Amino acid sequence: xxCFATYEECSSSEGEFEEEAVGSRMCKVPYDDGNTACRxxxxxxxxxxxxxxxxxxxxxxxxxxxxxxxxxxxxxLAGELHFRCSQCDETRVCKNCGPGVYIGSTFDFxxxxxxxxxxxxxxxxVLHYRKSRQAGRAAKKTRGVAIGSERTDxxxxxxxxxxxxxxxxxxxxVHDDEEDISDNDWFHEDTLLRLLGASSRAEAMETSxxxxxxxxxxxxxxPTLQEVKAPCKIFGDTHGQLRDVLLLFGCFGFPGTxxxxxxxxxxxxxxxxxxxxxxxxxxxxxxxxxxxxxFINRGNHEDAHMNLKYGFHKSVIQAMGPEQGPAIxxxxxxxxxxxxxxxxxxxxxxxxxxxxxxxxxxVHDLREVKRPLHHPDLQKDSNHWIWNLLWSDPIEDDxxxxxxxxxxxxxSPRGKMACKFGWNVTQ
Length: 427
Prior knowledge:
3-stranded mixed β-sheet, 34% helix, disordered N terminus, 6-stranded antiparallel β-sheet
C-alpha cells in the first residue's frame, strides 16, 4: 500500500485464550464526506487480522507449530504476534511486515524527486517491531519508505560526468574561436542538448532532473560555511553567461585540473544572461562530479522571488516547456534553498556574495544557520544579517563626500533590509 491512515483497534482481550481472541487492525481511509472505508492489505483484497500474542501456556497447548512470513520468509514463533488474512488461510505476515506503519496522508509526504520530506512520529499504539530484524533495516528504511537512493546518486553522477566532458568540448570550441562576440550574441539552438548529451527535449529534462536532485542532496548534506584550501579560483556573478565562463575556463583552467584545482562560484549563477539553464546545469554537474573541488555560494539571485522578476523562470519554461517547466523551476528553487552561504579559504579569507552587513555576527553563527532558506525565511527579522550576506555592499573609499561617509553602516538603494558598510566594519 502507498499510504495508510489511522489504524483502529477493533477488539480487546489479548489475555484470554479463545479461538476468537484476535484484534483486527484495519486501515481506515477518510473521505471528504466524513465517512471512512477499509483499505486492503492482503493481496486478495481483504483486511489483515492481528492475532494476539497468547500466554505461554496457551501457546504450548494450541499453537506449538511455527509458520513462515509470506512477505520476508522469516519464522513466526509459536504464540508470537502476527497477522492473518480473514480469507486466505495460508497467509501469514509477521509483525514487522504487517500494518505497523502510521502515515497521516494529510500531513506526511516524501518527494522522490527532491528528497524533501515531512514525517510524523509513529504512535506507539500502532508500532510493532522485532528488534533483531529492525536493527538491520532501520538504516535503509523509515516506516517502509526508502530515504536513501544510491541508484539515483549513481545515475546523477554518470549524467554529471557526461556533462563535464561535453563542457570541456564546448570550452575548446569557444577558446579556439577567432571571432570574439558577446554571450548574448552567441546563440546555438542545440546548446542545451549538446551540453547534456541529449537527443530531445524530453531526454534533456530527465537529465536536468537528475542533476538537480543530485546537487540538492549534496547541498543539503554539506555545511553552511564551506572550508577550502588554497590555491583556488573564484568566479562571481556569472548570470547565465555560459560562453564567458567557458572562456574563463580556457584562460585560467578547467575546474579540477592542475591550473584550477579548486573553484568557488560566488553566487548569482542565473538571471539576465542568454544561457541561464545551460550554465546552471553545467555548474551542478561540476559539483556532482567533483564535490571536493567545486564549491558554490548562494547569491541574492538564487531565490525564486528574484528569478520570477529577472528572467530565470522564463528561461526554464522556454527550455523545458510549459508542462514540465514549472515543476523543474520549483525543483531548482528547492536546490537554491539549500545552498551554502559562505566559503572560507585557509581559515583566513571569507567569501560571501554580498558583504558582512553590520558585522554583528561571527563564524559560529554562520555555521549554525539551518536550511532550507526560502525567500520568506530570509526576510524574517531574526535573519536580517543573513539577508545582508547576500545583499549588502562595501562602501568605496572615494564614495562619500567627506571622510565620515566612508565609515560605519549606511542604508542601501537595494532595499530597506540591505545596507552598505565601511572598511572599519570589516576590521
